[in-house]
Amino acid sequence: MKKDTSKAIRLRIYISSTDKLKHSLLFESIVYQAKRYNLAGATVFKGIMGFGASSIVHSYKFWEISDKLPVTVEIIDEEKKITQFFNTIKPYLEEMRYGCMITAEPVNVWLYKEGKKR
């Protein structure tokens, strides 16, 4: 993303913490793919409770054995780059056994500054 870019797109991918792509966790695969596409960055948020199209509520409770929780992968960059990236990962998301939801909305970037390398 250009440092002087003020308009961008936020891509949000809603999946489960246990969703897999081959033998890797899906959210990890998406983040590494975003890095390969030189996108501005990606962040994964783990929810404590939620449900999707299946209407099954998943929540974090210390007595539950399963760690199936809602996860959101969020990526912000220029619209063209986000669209190209989404078209690359879309076939994998469409083939998932379980559901997901993808949204995109315009955002205004007020500051995009690289950190100092150590």
TrEMBL record:
InterPro entries associated with the record: N-reg_PII-like_a/b, N-reg_PII/ATP_PRibTrfase_C, UPF0166
Pfam families (UniProt xref): DUF190 (PF02641)
Family: Belongs to the UPF0166 family.
Membrane-spanning segments: none
The species this protein was found in: Tenuifilum thalassicum
SUPFAM superfamilies per record: GlnB-like (SSF54913)
Signal peptide: none
Domain of life: Bacteria
UniProt protein name: DUF190 domain-containing protein
